[in-house]
Amino acid sequence: MNKKYVRIIGVLTLLFVIYSCVEPFSPPEVNSDQGYLVIDGFLNVGSDTSWIELSHTQNTNATQPIAKEPKAKVVVEQENGLTYPFTEKGNGSYFLPPQTFSKTVKYRLRIKTVSGSEYLSDYVEVKNTPPIDSIAGKFDERQNAMVMQVNTHDATNKTRFYRWKFEETWEYRAAYYSALEAITNANKEREIITRRNDINLCWRTLKSGNILLGSTIKLSQDIIKDLPLTTVLASTNKLYIKYSILVKQYGLTQDAFEYWTSLAKTTEGTGSLFDPLPSQITGNIKNTADGQELVFGYFSASVEQKKRIFLTPRLGVYPGCIEPDTLSIPEAQETSSLLMNYTGARFDSVLVTSDYCADCRVQGGVTTKPSFWE
Q: How far is 174 from 178, CA to CA, in rounded Å?
């Protein structure tokens, strides 16, 4: 890593979803069952949709799903009096379609929950974000991995503070191909037919869960060069067929940068007896009736810049699995295993295997090709 600028990588725990990159938000200082409000999102003054996610903290030992905040009124207010109401999509998510925003005025976020509590952010200035110059994958032989790097610069030297998020998507196959399936026909009899839908080829997408920051404040020029975003190990097989990464870049104010820096240091500095004691990290949002209530999140307004690349480095190995079993036709008609192909001298038996070995969806992907896929 280039030591000329600040890089912080810490786990931002916001949602508890198995097999998701969005982690449970459980700040180290919260060890009670009090569910403090968590506000995640920003005002996108560019050409894309703005999103605000509302949820609640939970005890680090809790096993129940994270609590969301539905039916809230979410509004962005411009300092000259204009308001921009968000629409609830469901499950604590609120969105605002692209608007024509002024970049010379300030904005703030107002939230009213269904219980009557009101939360208000400070007014924030709009930070412009320079375009992403390039994204590249650099192979690291020592790690046997591809290191994904980002490059950007601001010729006006005004950005200085950056944050990134990314989404990985990769194409993969199950070890075996299931060409057959057993169904119950119109006569309520079991029969074996050619599989109607391919479940061998899948695409899976994961979102970044780390706090990825960069600063050029100590440099004479506002240039980020070869900053590592993530390391993709060959052993994951993400790189075996085709891999894509979508990088999102945001300019930050210095206050926002310091908030995310503090949060990153706190979340990555826990779990050891010798780690520093965690500090209370709160952002620029407060309860209007109780300024002492803990509220987590930082409201920002900036232009989102995005760039996607595709890689086909053929790193990894074709997936392997246990040897398939052989069943008679009557057995295959009733088995819960996946059917592969007919076999035997007279095709009087069927090769079968487990869901994991022949159904790519079991590994978290979907069989529908993404609209952006090359």
A: 9
> 331 pLDDT exceeds 60?
yes
d(CA 283, CA 70): 22
0.90 cut: is pTM over it?
Answer: no
pLDDT in tens, 12-34: 333 333 233 334 444 444 455 57
> Do 228 and 351 belong together in one domain?
no
Are 74 and 297 in contact, with CB atoms under 8 Å apart?
no
**Which residue from 187, 200, 201 is spatially nearest to 341, judged by alpha carbons?**
200
Residues 192 and 323 grouped into a single domain? yes
| 103 and 242 co-located in one domain | yes
Co-location of 303 and 328 in the same domain: no
pLDDT single digits (tens) 231-242: 999 999 999 999
Task: State the residue range of the domain holding 288.
Answer: 6-170+204-311
**How many angstroms separate the Cα of 88 from the Cα of each of 16, 118, 288?**
20, 17, 22
The answer to whether residue 370 is domain-embedded is no
> What average pLDDT does this structure show over 305-333?
96
Residue 150 lies in a domain: yes
Cβ(306)–Cβ(370) under 8 Å?
Answer: no
Q: In sequence order, what are the beta bridge partners of 78?
A: 107
